Amino acid sequence: MKSRSFQFFNSLLTCPKCKAEIQEEEFISKYCGCGYRLQISFDYDLLRESVTKQTLKKRPFNHERYVEFYPLKNPDNLIRLGTGGTSMIKADKIAKKIGVENLFLKLESANPSGSFKDRPISVGVSKAKELGSTTVTAASSGNAAAALATYAARSGLDAVVFVPEHAPQGKIAQLTFLGAKVVKVSVIEEGTDPTVTLFKKAYKEYNWTPSPSFGPFNPFQFEGTKSLGFEICEQSDWQVPDWILCNTGSGGLLAGTFQGFSEFQQLDFISSLPKMVAVQPAECAPIVNSVKKKVHPLEFIDWTKTPNTVAGGLADPHPWDGNEALEAIYNSKGTAVTVDEPDILRTQRWLAAEEGIFGEPSGTAALAGLEKLVNDGTIDKKDFIVLPITGTGFKDPEVVFENVTIYNAIPPDLEQLKQLLDVMRT
Known about the structure:
Layout (H helix, E strand, L loop, with lengths): L11 E3 L6 E3 L20 H7 L2 H5 L30 E3 L1 H7 L3 E6 L10 H13 L4 E5 L3 H13 L2 E7 L4 H9 L3 E5 L8 H13 L2 E2 L15 H10 L7 E5 L4 H15 L8 E7 L4 H7 L29 H11 L2 E5 L1 H15 L5 H15 L8 E6 L7 H6 L11 H12 L1
Parallel strand pairs: 4-12, 5-6, 5-8, 6-7, 9-10, 9-12, 10-11
Antiparallel strand pairs: 1-2, 3-4
Helix pairs in contact: 4-5, 5-6, 8-9, 9-11, 10-11, 12-13
């Protein structure tokens, strides 16, 4: 496909609130300030003429497969690092524990930086390079920062990332080794995210390209998350799941995945849409609260307390993609549910012990949400359910050490081994 005839999207971006129209190359300098992600429209008639199920099938099964659906003028500008194409497996043992029959897990920890954030960030960094940027920056609890550092390194751009003061050491090490400049930021005001506060000041001062995985600061990255929905469609042999449960912080995962299904429906690849479920820790649940109060998407409710949850990646007091997430939940006739800390940890252990999948709490919390919705009758045991496991447990080892018993070393003696095994069985 020739680059000059490639573009399938409109370079004029639109604010969902004030309807301001801004050229893509001016998205930073002329941003309207309403606080919502500028929207990108695609030419679905042109996509329908250019992309079919058959053309997709001939391509390698990864993130690059869907390049026409990303806001790039030249497909060669997409950073290629083996992103996407993650496995979707049937999880019979944990399904039996929870009481369902058709549970599938999408293993996003297989992405290059270890989480689903590679999908949006790879597109955002690709677009930044296409627009001539030299430095990208983000505020992140860890996974988005790791993705940004990964794709910046691959593309030759500089990366500056702002992380919480107590971000897991495993994530900090990954960022530093990838060459990012890592700035820890401390809390100074209850109910605000200090990393976002400093990030906003810094990118304006230094003319860096804002590249967080959420909200209004970068309109392009959201489009990368669509590939998660695209892949689920194909891996399900075009049979749409009844439910997709998403670990939810800012709301971008849920909204972007649903957008993927919506676009495939517009191309007549599928005839229905899944019900989307936002699962949030009870310690930080602004989207759940907004759903319960049935607020308008553009009037989503912030969380007013500083979150204190083991699922640190879901601790977003201001859900930057809250309006998109609410629209997806309402339009899909889905729902939202909170989960308690002990249940997050318990189901995380289940997943590891029963299925051999080691996910971080932020990546597995939706399992506790599934259990809750099955128990209250919302989800039927025969429903087709997909749950993305969004990040590897190696990103947050401190949580593991706090919740497991590590036994002292023993000499190479069979009697002491027998005694230790007896203790381990109790």
